Amino acid sequence: MLLRLTMLPGLALTMWAVPRLARHLGGNPAIALWLAVLNPLVLIHLIGGVHNEVLMVGLMSAGVVLALDRKHLSGIALVSLAVAIKATAGAALPFIVWIWMIHARKDAEAQGRTPTNPIVLFAKTASAGFAVFVAIFSAVSFVAGVGLGWMTALSGSAKIVNWLSLPTILAHFVTVGTSWFADLRLGAVLDVTRTICAVALIAIVVTAWWKFRKTERDAVLGILVVLVAIVVLSPAALPWYYSWPIAIAAGFALSTRTLMILVGLSTWLMLVFQPDGSIGLYTFPHVAAATFAAVVAALSLRTVDPLRLRSTREPEQDCPQLAFDYVHGNDEDAENPQPTHTAPSTPAPSGTA
User: Fold this and answer.
1) Are residues 199 and 304 in the same domain?
2) Rounded distance, CA 69 to CA 61, Å?
């Protein structure tokens, strides 16, 4: 319980940051909070399972928001704290440099000054950000008393082998597909597929960092792309790893179809591991049950009671807005959908909310 209490500040930071991120990116703050915080993948796996992603995601998302609010050094400091908890948060740091440079150019144009040479500006912002990172990371390492010894433990995740990681999926396909004419071992093939995916990951990170540099929205989108690439292409993946990109994705304006995909994915990931932490991926009935629940959860954004289990239907006016819009033929993929309830057609009884 003490470990869970230790993680709660990260949840609070996420609750503070995600709606603000949505306001910057044109998303819906209520939907963002619902997707990134009230998501059962977060509550059950991160809080219930006591994973340090709670602190990492909270600090990282708050740092990105501070950078968008032009508090660049403070934002880098928070993300540096997140890196000290889990190295993955470092994906946000190069893009915060772009955000800082974008703000500097806008300020120069607003004041009628000639913008600083991009190379000089990059050198200034990157060096200042790097100095803050080194100072924060060194201080935290000193206080924790761990030094850099934790870096040798990063390879420990390579021991995890499951179907959530693309290198593992490819290795399984190769070994099964060639089993009738070759005697390939999973371990040897896995080394090759992990190497290929590592090279692909590096290429994606570099390409995304250079491509998504023109606007603030681009920079945040770049963070999202890199986090997704890390989750998919890393040697190992676990369900709660997907909370990293979901926290950033929640800030964007999402179509209903995209929300359905994210809801279904979150539900499936939450259920595919058993409550005691054991993997259900290799048990067909477990995977089938998780998939069924995920599909129902996704359809529930469109249709009230998709399985038609209720004996009587609720009045149309009491349906969730998404289902109401669907019934009346509104745009299927309206950006920024509002999962609220319409007002009842008759006055509510006295004393009720």
Assistant:
1) no
2) 12
Joined together, the tokens standing for residue 32 give 């963002």
Spatial neighbors of 71 by CB under 8 A, at least 6 apart, are: none
For helices 216-233 and 93-110, the axis angle rounded to 10 degrees is 170
Mind listing the pLDDT tens digit for each residue in 93-144?
999 999 999 999 998 888 888 878 889 999 999 999 999 999 999 999 888 8
User: Could you tell me if residue 308 is inside a domain?
Assistant: yes
Q: Among 238, 254, 270, which residue terminates a domain? A: 254
Q: Which two tokens stand for residue 338?
A: 């509002």
Q: What are phi and psi of 347, to 5 degrees?
A: -60, 140
Q: What is the pLDDT of residues 236-284, one digit of tens each?
A: 888 889 999 999 999 999 999 999 999 999 999 999 887 677 788 888 8
Does any domain span residue 314?
A: yes
How many domains does the chain divide into? 2
* Residues 6+ positions from 147 with CB-CB distance below 8 Å: 141
Give the whole-angstrom CA distance, residue 12 versus residue 278. 28
**What does 238-277 look like in DSSP terms, one character per residue?**
-GGGGHHHHHHHTTS---HHHHHHHHHHHHHHHHHB-TTS
pTM of the model: 0.84
Q: What is the pLDDT of residues 152-199, one digit of tens each?
A: 777 666 677 778 889 988 988 888 888 777 778 888 888 899 999 999
Domain extent at residue 301: 255-340
